[in-house]
Amino acid sequence: MQTVYTLHHLHILEEDREDVKLCSVYSTRERAESAMTQLKQQPGFRDLPELCTNENNLREGFYIDRHEVDRVTWNSGFVTE
Length: 81
Hints:
By secondary structure, the chain is mainly beta. Helix content is 14%, strand content 42%. It contains 1 helix and 4 strands, in the order ββαββ. Strands 2-1-4-3 form a 4-stranded antiparallel sheet, with helices on one face. A hairpin with a 5-residue loop joins strand 3 (52-53) and strand 4 (59-68).
């Protein structure tokens, strides 16, 4: 099965609002990490470069996820409260 790696950046705007940016999709983790290194130098991103916990105990910064192509991974539905 083919695997891809997504590079995201998460910024908490308020306690109940977040700004998630999908920076891109990569064929290897190494390429995603290289792109993350480049983006960490850019305005905005350099202020929140590492995924860390902020003062409200919420996580912010870059993260990389691994995904298998052509496979449903969220198959249990969801509930909105």
